[in-house]
Every structure is written in C-alpha cells, then in structure tokens.
Amino acid sequence: LEKMSTDSIKVRVLLASAGAISDNDVLLASASHAIIFGFNVRPDARVRQKAEESHVEIRLHKIIYELLDDMEAAMKGMVKAEVVESITGQAEIRHIYKIGKVGTIGGSYVTSGLIKNGAKIRLLRDGVVIYDGKLGSLKRFKDDAKEVKEGYECGLTIEGYNDIKEGDVVEAYEMVEKTEGGAA
C-alpha cells in the first residue's frame, strides 16, 4: 500500500497486524484521521459502534486486489460505492447440537440487531472469517422463525457447513444498493 504513494498523496500504514479489528485500532484511526482496512476479518458490534461514534471509516475486503483497487480509488477521490454491505445482526453460538440427518445446529443468542431466515452470513472465530455463506434454517424453540431479534435465543444451521464451535459468532448481512441521495 505504501508503494502506491504519489507526489501529491503519501500513503502511510500506521499499523499492520493479524487478528480481529479492535477498540485500540479504532482509537488509533480516530486520533490519526485514518481509514481502517480489514482483510478477511470483521469487527464485532461493539467495535463497529465505536467506529461510527468516532467517525472512523472501516473498509472490509476478502480479495486483496479489491483492497488495492479501493485504496487507489480513495487516493483519486473517486470512491463511489454502488453496493454497500449492511450488517443486520450478530449471534453468538453457545451450544452445539449434532442431529443425524440435519447436521450441526448452533444453539445461539442474538447479541445485536436481528437474524433473518435465509440471510447471507459469515461465521467468525476469534474475529476472523471462517466461512461465508447462507443461513440454512432458523428456529425459535421447535418452530421455524422468519427472524430473531436481539436478546432472544434461537437454533440455526448454516447451509453446506457444519464445523461450528461454541463461542463462534454468526454475522448476518445484506447487500444494499446506494444511490447519490442515500440507500435505495
């Protein structure tokens, strides 16, 4: 990234490290008026809220050349996001149930927002993206649920993926088209 510097724009990397985006990263970015670029990691709800309060921009990528393109566009002042990711909620997996034909069910507690049935999700382990896919099923007690809100428990499966563990976080998101005047 530093090699992308030009005569008029100097790129300076303040911190490069492995692991989840933390409160300290947000504090450093806020004090330095910097942008946080995350590669294959996700901030939790608390860190995301702190970033919003501190007016720190967090840009997340999972493909390295997209990160480089984003940085180049930011340098040229031409950043125009047509499709923006919106986090709808997070749930912490607190207990695992293995059912023969069904697979692995995560007994979960929704810690922020809401989780919708069939949503796009990411499975996070220690703040690192382990799997990106789709929610297979969502249940409240023994009934199917359309959505489960913050503060409630649920059972969920991840479509095509069974390697979930206690302590993992399921992050639900949707892609929202953004126009000049805001979200469409």
Please supply descriptive tags for the structure shown above:
3 helices; two-stranded parallel sheet; 6-stranded antiparallel barrel; 184 residues; alpha+beta; single chain; disordered C terminus; elongated
List the helices and strands and how they pair.
Blueprint: H1 23-32, E1 36-39, H2 45-53, E2 58-61, H3 64-76, E3 83-99, E4 103-116, E5 120-125, E6 128-140, E7 143-144, E8 147-149, E9 153-158, E10 169-179, E11 182-183
Parallel strand pairs: 1-2
Antiparallel strand pairs: 3-4, 3-10, 4-8, 4-9, 5-6, 5-10, 6-7, 6-9, 10-11
Distance between the termini: 32 Å
Question: How are strands sequenced across the largest beta sheet?
Answer: 3-4-9-6-5-10
Number of helices: 3
> Helical percent range?
10-25%
Approximate shape = elongated
Average the pLDDT over all residues and give the rounded result: 86
Please compute the radius of gyration using only Cα atoms.
18 Å
Order of helices and strands: HEHEHEEEEEEEEE
Sum this structure up briefly.
This protein has 184 residues and is an alpha+beta fold. The protein is built from 3 helices and 11 strands.
Model description:
With 184 residues, the protein is α+β, with helices and mostly antiparallel strands. It contains 3 helices and 11 strands; from the N terminus they run αβαβαβββββββββ. The protein has helices spanning 23-32, 45-53, 64-76; strands spanning 36-39, 58-61, 83-99, 103-116, 120-125, 128-140, 143-144, 147-149, 153-158, 169-179, 182-183. β6 and β7 (143-144) form a beta hairpin. The longest helix is centred in the middle third of the chain and has 13 residues, at 64-76. The protein is elongated, with a radius of gyration of 18 Å. The model is unreliable at 179-184 (pLDDT under 50).
